[in-house]
């Protein structure tokens, strides 16, 4: 009662009432500021969360052969609640597609009852065969026509070639320009109506015969081939320049 009377007397004049209102607002702001700061994550805590998300990606997504995989966590709002977790942070994701350019990682501390979803950007670079010279349709590729360059594989999503040897001697199916990444449908490793060697067998035993390719084929593709001896049409997989293989 005495406190209320004291406040009433102290704010009896317009000047005193204005001061009291300003003072009350200042106290409220300071209480809000300090309570917010007490709950906000520190710079080190945010860095720890980002590193946990990035390491999860690097540990669970395979790097391209002969290439590199980079993971870059998005910026995190410093106003989030986080602590120095007493146990190692737990990480997980509902999707781990190797072809995705971004993956969201859940980082959590069950001991202190907090969690945060962190988007992580992926960059995958790998070797791809690139043209050095212009190549005309029907021309055979030689070593002087191609080179190896590191390419962003998530932007270049078409089927290419990761080593020069797999395209040497292949025939261009169209005019090709220097500076282009060589794609699977740009060339035929085995070309239609050409004579091919048909290999068949299993480990320790291989037989060979000749045949005629009934369609174009890139490395690893399955095509129809006519056996020149028996005239039978078979399905075979392209394994090299002028070569196909049938598995028993």
TrEMBL record:
SMART domains tied to this protein: SAF
Any Pfam family: ChapFlgA_N
UniProt superkingdom: Bacteria
Location of the SAF domain: 126-188
Keywords from the UniProt entry: Bacterial flagellum biogenesis, Cell projection, Cilium, Flagellum, Periplasm, Signal
Signal peptide feature range: 1-40
InterPro entries assigned to the protein according to its UniProt record, in alphabetical order: Flagellar_FlgA, FlgA_N, SAF, SAF_FlgA
Compartment list: Periplasm
Stored Gene3D superfamilies: 2.30.30.760, Antifreeze-like/N-acetylneuraminic acid synthase C-terminal domain (3.90.1210.10)
Known role: Involved in the assembly process of the P-ring formation. It may associate with FlgF on the rod constituting a structure essential for the P-ring assembly or may act as a modulator protein for the P-ring assembly.
Family: Belongs to the FlgA family.
Protein name: Flagella basal body P-ring formation protein FlgA
Annotated source species: Vibrio olivae
Lineage: Bacteria, Pseudomonadati, Pseudomonadota, Gammaproteobacteria, Vibrionales
The encoding gene: flgA
